[in-house]
TrEMBL record:
Domain Helicase C-terminal: 218-362
Annotated organism of origin: Nitratireductor kimnyeongensis
Keyword NAD annotated: no
Name this protein carries in UniProt: DNA helicase RecQ
Gene that this sequence comes from: recQ
Tagged with keyword DNA damage: yes
Length: 518
């Protein structure tokens, strides 16, 4: 029973053609390979496992966390004429028997199963007696201990590697930053080369990131381009949210506030108005986000640094769902950065967690400081790629740059010579030839890269290293000590030594107290 995937797509699902990388993924799995699939919500992940499950002989096993979700999927599949069922702990014994029978005589195509049910020895034994076409793990980020959605049973799914060594494994998710991604594929023993990442580009969104100078004036200038349009202005604190909304109202804008400090009715009333009315500006903390379903949000402005690149991507992603041109603008200042670092430092998180948060902050700063196309940096973070987009501020107005080729070579070589396990602060100290007890203890004051970076100061080196992360030349060990190692691309850079322009870091802010507030 080898069926043609395109034929199934048309006859069973009624779709004309595959979308994005679906066809590639389907072929890859039909050929018997593992796959890690990262696509945004709505990207079309289900077909990526359902069609190979139908094309390959045997039963397709789909691990899914939510019983309600399984029931929906099974109902939809049955409607399309596919023989599907769901196995979970709520099932009465007769229904369970019926599933075993169908499995035994080969009249079941797809079986959804919860991880806790799947991992029962009796269930595993049953499954070992039938041929399996594939095992797909949906919402695979649930196995990540760092994620917001950790489920201990998901963690144990690595048992599938040993229980069904010859069955292709798929892991699918919509939310996976670099560390989570690495954790998933390592845990399920899927190789890097079997990763499919796609669909993150939002080509209709224009990205711009500016340093704070006079934030209110900068916001006003931005809003002038969006008269009579709806958008979101994100602030870090509740107080600033209220103040900014009041100020915008005083300037004649139809602005509303939304934050967790407001009572529920007021908050919901504002959300409803935003949803229904035209030309409304919602000034909000990140509490505003869930359940926004407004296709014509034309702009998203961040008056403070967002929490991370993922947060930035999610929050800006609320603009332009209708596909029409939209704009994202972010302001950031040195004070924000210092404040963020203090937040992390003073939180009660574990040291490891704190280090990871610091690295994520640095990655975000890499995006802010880059001389490269913003979209390239953003997509690179998710493991996706694009050409310079022509639809961001750095593409339109290349920032002041300097030839950073030699500096990057020096930094890469320093990372290499110190064993690819130290964090950026250490690498910078070695490059500057710092008189440091740790450096002496490791003998790194004896290596050739000790003190070879004196032409730049510490601030510049830190910026160079962040830009190297943004370029994807170094990988950051987020879940360990933030150690830097040389990526495939970094190794290629060292081999080919191309010219590389980097953004000139701004001098440290002196003489504050500009006439600005907010
Ligand atoms: P995800 O699981 O990635 O969030 P789904 O698999 O639920 O996304 O797909 C989202 C929607 O897109 C569904 O309505 C699905 O039927 C539709 N869809 C997926 N692939 C295609 C395609 N190739 N052509 C048309 N519609 C598709
Ligand atoms: Zn660009």
């Amino acid at each position: 029973m080898t069926a043609d995937p395109t034929h199934i797509l048309k006859t069973v699902y009624g779709y004309e053609s595959f979308r994005g990388r679906q066809a590639e993924i389907v072929d890859h799995v039909i050929a018997g390979h593992n796959a890690f699939v990262l696509m945004p919500t709505g990207g079309g992940k289900s077909l990526c496992y359902q069609i190979p499950a139908l094309c390959r002989p045997g039963l397709g096993l789909i691990v899914s966390p939510l019983i309600a979700l399984m029931a929906d999927q099974v109902a939809a599949l049955k409607q399309a004429g596919i023989r599907a069922a769901a196995l979970n702990s709520n099932l009465p014994p007769e229904a369970r028997q019926a599933i075993w029978r169908a499995m035994g005589n080969g009249s079941l195509d797809i079986l959804y199963v919860s991880p806790e049910t799947l991992l029962r020895p009796t269930v595993l034994d049953r499954l070992k007696q039938v041929p399996l076409s594939l095992v797909a793990i949906d919402e695979a980020h649930c196995l990540s201990q760092w994620g917001h959605d950790f489920r201990p049973h998901y963690r144990q799914l690595d048992a599938l590697v040993t229980e069904f060594p010859d069955t292709p494994r798929m892991a699918l998710t919509a939310t996976a930053d670099a560390p989570t991604r690495a954790e998933i594929i390592a845990h399920l023993d899927i190789s890097e080369g079997d990763s499919f990442i796609a669909g993150f580009d939002r080509p209709n969104i224009h990205y711009a990131i500016e340093e704070k100078d006079n934030p209110r004036r900068q916001l006003q200038r931005f809003l002038e381009k969006h008269k009579d349009e709806s958008g979101i202005v994100y602030c870090l604190s509740k107080r600033k949210t209220d103040e900014t909304a009041a100020w915008l109202q005083s300037q004649g804008y139809n602005a509303l506030a939304y934050h967790a400090g407001m009572d529920r009715e007021a908050r919901e009333a504002n959300q409803t108005r935003f949803q229904r009315e035209e030309a409304v500006i919602m000034v909000a903390t990140i509490a505003f986000g869930m359940g926004i379903d407004k296709p014509d949000v034309r702009f998203v402005a961040h008056l403070d640094l967002p929490g991370s690149i993922e947060a930035y991507y999610q929050e800006t992603g609320r603009a332009g769902r209708d596909g029409l041109p939209s704009e994202a603008m972010m302001l950031y200042g040195f004070d924000d950065i210092a404040l963020r670092r203090r937040f992390i430092d003073e939180s009660d998180a574990s040291d490891q967690r704190k280090r990871m948060e610091m690295q994520k902050l640095d990655t975000l700063l890499g995006l802010a400081e880059t001389a490269q196309c913003r979209r390239q940096v953003l997509l690179n973070y998710f493991g996706d790629h694009c050409e310079p987009c022509g639809n961001c501020d750095t593409c339109a107005n290349p920032p002041e740059r300097f030839d950073g080729s030699i500096a990057v070579q020096k930094a890469l070589s320093c990372i290499y010579r110190t064993g690819e396990r130290f964090g950026q602060a250490y690498i910078v100290s070695v490059l500057l030839g710092a008189d440091d007890e740790r450096i002496a203890r490791f003998g790194h004051d004896q290596i050739s890269t000790y003190g070879i970076g004196k032409e730049h100061d510490q601030r510049t080196w830190r910026s160079i290293l962040r830009q190297m992360v943004a370029h994807g030349f170094v990988d950051v060990d987020f879940s360990g000590h933030g150690g830097l190692s040389i990526s495939e691309r970094g190794a290629q850079f060292l081999r080919e030594k191309p010219t590389l322009m980097l953004r000139v870091p701004r001098p440290a802010a002196k003489g504050k107290n500009r006439r600005s507030s907010g």
